[in-house]
Design a protein that fits this description.
Order of helices and strands: EHEHEEHEEEHHHHEHHEH
Strand order of the largest sheet: 1-7-6-5-4-2-3
Bound molecules: pyridoxal-5'-phosphate
Number of helices: 10
Length: about 325
Amino acid sequence: MPEAIGGYFELELRKGHHPYPQAVAFNSARSAFKALVLARNLRRIHLPIYICDVMQDVLRGSGGIEVLRYALTERLELPDLPALQADEALLFVNYFGLKADYISEVLAVRYGKQLIVDNSQALFSKPQSGIATLYSPRKFVGVADGGWLANAPAGLPQAQSSRSQARFGALLGRLEDSPQHHYATFQALELALENDGVKAMATSTARLLDSIDYHEVARRRIDNLAHLRRRLDHLNRFVIWPVQPVAALCYPLLVKSAETANRLRAQLLDQHIYVPSYWREVLDNPTVPPIERDWAQCLLPLPIDQRYNVDDMNRLADVILQNMGKS
Ligand SMILES: Cc1ncc(COP(=O)(O)O)c(C=O)c1O
């Protein structure tokens, strides 16, 4: 069919701002991961223990791919670098967007194309030449779904397109109401993504992602992170900061105990400050190593995103400081 000319307008969006135009676009990062593993015919994948469950779940029923989970050091690095056979790969998460140096200086050098970089938490970390890299843009900007695979293998099968128009409810709702009104809808959509299967990115999501001012998003995140660092670093057990300023996912506040984290989380909630958990499901495993348990229990990933400015960061820091003072 020829393209329409005229008629009523679609949602008006800018074009040409896509950060990774060479990447293959999927409905989620987990789909990008599954498509990559299948296309490469991998037999074994090394996955960190400290990651969301969906990355292992998505491989179920994919022809017996073996998943080996590895533990991390306190610096969120591998204690030793395992030797990989030709049909194995190691996935590493660029945690909070703050581990790019370790990836480029250590893992990429050691593993080359056998490394899969999971930049789901690192939208602004560019892919390294030839290394497959995953992105999950909705963790950084207001879209309902979507994933990118940079440096995809040649001959990836063309997936059917996902459809996102029914997933806009929570995003539009947040423009008109406070977030708690639409939180249940948001959660239901996140769950539904698990059943969407491996699909190509919906055109609506792709158009939205092409319209965003990424330069401004990055600038705000860098400024907000720097401000929280000035206010909170003295009470933070997280000390593995990169040397250069980074447009990170969040300010990772690692507190001394699960009790402190729970109490702070409740105080923040009381002030309508919402903090996610990375990743509660890690605790379902009774044999989870102590470092992963510590991160899953004691980490408060504080929001630093582009919606907020220095006054918001001060409000956030004040709540933390007042409550940590009482501990
Ligand atoms: C580190 C990491 N990788 C991958 C994913 C999966 O991303 P998506 O929800 O886009 O499939 C997540 C989701 O929480 C994640 O935290």
